[in-house]
Write a structure and sequence with these properties.
- By secondary structure, this protein is of the alpha+beta class.
- It has a single domain (5-222), classed as Immunoglobulin-like, CATH 2.60.40.1970.
- The chain contains 2 helices and 12 strands; from the N terminus they run ββββββββββββαα.
- The strands form 3 sheets. Strands 1, 2, 5, 6, 9 and 12 form a 6-stranded antiparallel sheet that branches. It has a 4-stranded antiparallel sheet with strand order 8-7-10-11, with no helix packed on it.
- Strand 7 (86-92) and strand 8 (101-104) form a beta hairpin.
- The longest helix is centred in the last third of the chain and has 24 residues, at 202-225.
- It is found in: Nucleus.
- This is YEATS domain-containing protein.
- Keywords: Nucleus, Transcription, Transcription regulation.
């Protein structure tokens, strides 16, 4: 089955500028997908999104199996309301947790738990019905300790966040027309750790991603140009 939604980090040489709607002038405006549905040809819609964790050391309350209280989340880069595209989010915790699969159907899209170990958390984004797209899953490592080895403190949490972009390639026309006219608004319900998550300069983030893609493309091109050497010569 062909996939029409993916993370921008898996794409090379995309022209990006915030939420991008790029459309080429084509004789044929549509393509027909495997289900017989019309999609807009050579059109993209990009949704910036952040996933991350905020972990608090429990101090004197800590025990062998409960050293930290933490929250995993998915949010807009500046806490925008994502409900116009994201219908629900499923968090896949470590199998040792009771009911490790948690589905959150309204904002804030977050789960709070307590424990002692770091592990990868699966974060699956489910889209609004008019998108008619399969869900997308990404992974984020729960981080309980600072990289520099600094001691735990009760004054501030350990924050780990990743900025990503969801690329909707050749979307359905009704979905594209709706979301392309959407004006971002703040979420009406703040996430529990809103005071600690970073704010993002989307222009800088997009430039960083574009530079990374260009570097990968250059490395790939240099591999193509590199002459073959006979190891026996």
């Amino acid at each position: 089955m062909e996939k029409y939604v993916g993370l921008a980090s898996s794409y090379l040489n995309r022209e990006l500028m915030g939420i991008i709607m790029s459309e080429k002038v084509m004789k044929d405006k549509y393509i027909i997908d495997e289900y017989g549905q019309k999609r807009l040809k050579d059109v993209e819609f990009i949704l910036p999104i952040c996933v991350g964790t905020v972990a608090w050391w429990q101090g004197k309350k800590a025990s062998e199996h409960n050293t930290h209280k933490w929250t995993v989340y998915a949010r807009g880069p500046n806490n925008e309301d994502l409900s116009y595209i994201i219908k629900k989010v499923t968090f896949e915790l470590h199998e040792t947790f009771a009911s490790p699969r948690r589905t959150i159907e309204q904002q804030p899209f977050e789960v709070t738990e307590a424990g002692w170990g770091q592990f990868d958390i699966g974060i699956t984004l489910h889209f609004t019905p008019d998108a008619r797209e399969s869900e997308v899953t990404m992974y984020h490592m729960l981080k309980l300790y600072e990289d520099d080895g600094s001691p735990n403190t009760l004054k501030k949490p350990v924050v780990s966040e990743t900025y990503e972009e969801l690329v909707f390639s050749e979307p359905h026309e009704d979905f594209y027309n709706r979301v392309s006219c959407h004006v971002p608004v703040p979420s009406t319900v703040l996430m529990s750790q809103a005071a600690w998550v970073p704010r993002h300069d989307e222009t800088a983030e997009l430039a960083r991603l574009q530079a990374a893609r260009a570097k990968i493309a250059n490395l790939a091109a240099s591999d193509v140009r590199r002459p073959l050497v006979d190891p026996m010569s």
